[in-house]
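I have a small job for you when you get a moment. Can you supply me with one protein entry, sequence and fold together? It will help me judge whether the discrete encoding reads sensibly. Write everything out right here, beneath this request:
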Amino acid sequence: MTTASNNRSPRTRRWLVFLLISLALWTVAAGPPHLRSGHPAPIRLSPSQIRTLAEIARGPQVEAAAAALSDRPSATVLWAKNADASLPMASTTKLMTALLALESLDPDQIVTVPPEAIVGNASMGLQAGEQVSVRALLYGLLLPSGNDAAMTLAIAAAGSEAAFVEEMNRRAAAWGLTQTHFANPHGLDAPGQVSSARDLLALARRALDHPLLAQIVATPSITIEGYTLTNTNRLLTSYPGTYGVKTGTTDAAGQVLIAAARRPTGDALGVVLNSPDRYRDMPRMLDYYFDHWRWVDTGLRPAAINKVMAPDGTLYRITTPSRPLLLQTWQILQLRAERRIAFDVDGHPSGVYQVWLGEEKLLETPLTFEPLPSP
């Protein structure tokens, strides 16, 4: 089961924590509490599991004005703070610029840097009139966050900055980014240049699904076509498992960061907007994910116990395909599996495999029966 957090107020979160701790203290003399609602296998929570639930209810200590944390494979938002507030998003804008540019430009295409591309402070180091490949411009766009690369790509793709921005907004609407509006392709402060934490999660997932962009945002540094470029995302070299995605900083936006991190137990994607310290807030969010959620394969695997004998004496091995579930860590030992098997008049088996958490059925899938050779 996956539990998505609401935008709860601090008072509400404190009340939930108090309730959980009170429940633990009230029941300690009688053993673990039962959470029962008529199901024959109620959940029994240990004191350590109750502490874990309290930690999940509290959420990470994030000081950013807005933030959201999701599981990337399922796109489930697990924790959020003002996730739908429209705020300046600075250079995270460049993820849309990259996606849109690649719809009309080939990575190996050579383009000319126009004079109007030389804007802002963050720069790839381009000079007007230079010939540069789209691939190199994408690295310059997403590593040092070059505003010059953004403008060059936009003009090459659409003929003008204004035409490109119109297409950015059309695409944002088509993708359901309801709190997002673009005024330029680079993210410098401008009226109407806003997005939300939830929208940026969706935009980052699209960027990470593009193989070339995923490769670029995971690159700490590179020298390409004579340009030595360093990624502004410090988590790539400081937080284990980080593989993207984009920073942003302006006076109006403050510190912005979208980050993705993958480990054997899961794959997290987070956003912070207007953070006083993005490299403190984001690791806390990612730690919260890796501490409290796991992807677990609940499928039935070939094993000595996973066999059944038909009335005619035929022995069958029973299996299911891989069935991964995203679970909170306390839930893993609470799972109960059931095999429901029947034989028809000819002795042929059929059945389903179910995984339960208390009274909630998390999974039901058909069983596969493989006849085994007679001993």
